[in-house]
Amino acid sequence: MVTQMKANPRTFGKQKSSSQLLKFLSYALLVLIVIFLYYVIGSSLHSSVDSDSQTLVSWVEMNSTTPNSKTKTFISQLRDSVNFLPGIDLSSSSSSSSDESETWVFFNQKGEAIENNDNSARKTFFSKLRDSVNFLPRIDLSSSISSSSLPASRQQDKGKHELKALITKLQNSVTFLPLKDLRFKKTAMEGHTWFMSSLNDTYEENEAEYLYFPSENSNGRLLCIKATTRVDGMNNSYALAWPESLPKSAKLLKGFSFISSTYYDYVNLWHGLSAFAPFVGWSMKHGCVKPTRWLFFVHGSPQNTTGSWLQKVMQGNFGDISIESFQEAGDVPYCFEKALVMRHDLGHMGLNRKHEVYQQIRCNARSFCGIKPEGKGRDFNENGVPNIRLTLLMRKGSRSFKDPQAVIEIFRKECAKVEGCILEVSQSEDLSFCDQVKVLTYTDILASTHGAQMTNMIFMDQNSTVMECFPKGWLEFAGIGQYAHHWLAAQSGMKHPDAYWETLDKIECPRPKVASSCFNFYKNGQVGHNETFFAEWIRSVLKDVKYNKEKQDANNFAVCTCQ
């Protein structure tokens, strides 16, 4: 007889629960094994890299004669050149954070789900996630082996080989960028400028901003320049490199290099002076240092020379210094042991500082030309009346007086009415540089038409007066450029109280609605005169100067800070 057993429902339920528990424990064990392997492998990988790095550093310490050896410096520099990227791209997080209706789910320590709409929670989450990112060096040092496992000779040979490899990697890491960056064309001399646009200037109160190499800002690196063309600065380039690992085939220029960049040129007296003056200010502040060479760039292209007038001013302040011409053929980097770069002209220099700088330029120009004006302040006539020296500085060609003799006669008549007034008429084209310095040194009032010759005003004593005359059309179409000598007068400590603009009765230019076209039409015209206006103008200026001369300090003359 077969006995049929009836299953007990309670027993079957217990068996089923045991099976599920066993299955859950199996999954849990598997997860623990995966986590264990992850940490073991990760720890081994990190310890391997750390061990390799430490092996190389240990070799350095064993083979270096001093703790600050070049080898250790190479490795430090090489490590500094490593670039890092995040292992996890969190760039999409910004888009999700903008959706305030989105619900984020977090889990507490018990594994319980928690819904949270709070933005601060999301920020905390991403902050922790970013902090958890690990970085590994791009340079693989895993080939290093323990120095203790090799004989001393083998250790030394291997060390030299590794050092040479490190230097090569450091040399290859130098990146050259375009010297002229067209992205900043509209602000060529502002902010970063389009010259060496990736570099940040050093700012000091009341001084022109500058770049100095090597410095803390450059991380001890030197400036290197490739000037392969004089036509397009986009094809020239610059880079920074450590002195122990300059680019291959680089030419190291010893000494101190002064490097100037301007949007304009170095032939025009006003533009050239504006680019030169900040170097004088920097030198005055740093112990009257002088350069070993000059480098001049316009739109990123090197210039072989400057105008003769600027060259004399440079010689008066720094001596006979050569201009680097980049004669080496081919793609040769020129690296500079020390370099000072000015790319903003006077930039943020304060007004009082500008007065000091131009006083220095004035003093050194006089000394260069053998002029000693110490007695000028005691310039009296036989009646004990202070002399007023009025100079009418003429020019030929464009922007000259239409009737120079008539203008000279007006000045002569008005000067004769004031005791102590002495008129001198000079033709600027006939004067050498030192002649110009001498004439302006002994000038209290400079009268001239607008032009480069007026830049010589800087050789007058401070508080001297300038009278400037313009052709017709300038007031209406010249724009801010017509105030260049107003600015120079203020910067150098002169008075430029007024100017004469010839009246434009009617517009005669072919394209009257185009200001630039009209300016080119009138730009180089000659200057007419209004006799009545000129006579009253001269009388007013002479009256003011006479009053100031009577109260002037007898020892008011330029004193050189640096000679």
Q: What this model shows, in words?
A:
The protein is an alpha/beta fold and 563 residues long. The chain is built from 14 helices and 16 strands. The strands form three sheets. Strands 3, 4, 5, 6, 7, 8, 9, 10 and 11 form a nine-stranded mixed sheet that branches. A five-stranded parallel sheet has the order 13-12-14-15-16, covered by helices on one side. It has a two-stranded antiparallel ribbon with strand order 1-2. α6 links the parallel β7 (251-262) and β8 (293-298). α2 packs across α5 (152-172), α6 (269-285) crosses α8 (351-368) and α7 packs across α8. It is elongated and about 120 Å long. Residues 1-16, 44-68, 82-111 and 132-147 have low confidence and may be disordered.
- By oligomeric state, this entry counts as single chain
Distance between the termini: 133 Å
Low-confidence stretches: 1-16, 44-68, 82-111, 132-147
Major sheet description: 9 strands, mixed
Overall outline: elongated
Question: In what range is the share of β-strand residues?
Answer: 5-15%
Compute the CA-based radius of gyration: 38 Å
Topology pattern, helix = H, strand = E: HHHEEHHEEEEEHEEHEEHEHEHEEHHEHH
Q: What's the count of strands?
A: 16
Roughly what is the average pLDDT, rounded to an integer?
A: 80
Number of helices: 14
**Helical coverage, percent range:** 25-40%
Output the structural class: alpha/beta
